[in-house]
Amino acid sequence: MNITELMPTRSAPLSGGAGGLTQMSIGMQKLTRREVEHVQSRAMVAKLVEDGRAYLANTMLEHVGALTALEQHLITVAPLGEARYREIVDSYTIGAGAALRRWGQ
To answer: Whole-prediction pTM value?
Structure first.
């Protein structure tokens, strides 16, 4: 995506019509383009952060699910370790949740 893709349509104030971008001084055009590029940059970073957060959440859910299944299996195989298994899976789950909350802050 480039700056022209973010520019408003012809009827909008930044277009080539009266009072539009082409009616501005060269200095104002450059300043406006820089500001638009800054907004574009922030939007792209925000999207990447959100994509990363979703990927991280998906991975964590898969891990919690796998650990929970293992916990359930181990409880049937070696029931005396039930409290320990639960502690380990709960600790992972709490830690993963905290990491996800911190992501992108």
So the answer is: 0.67
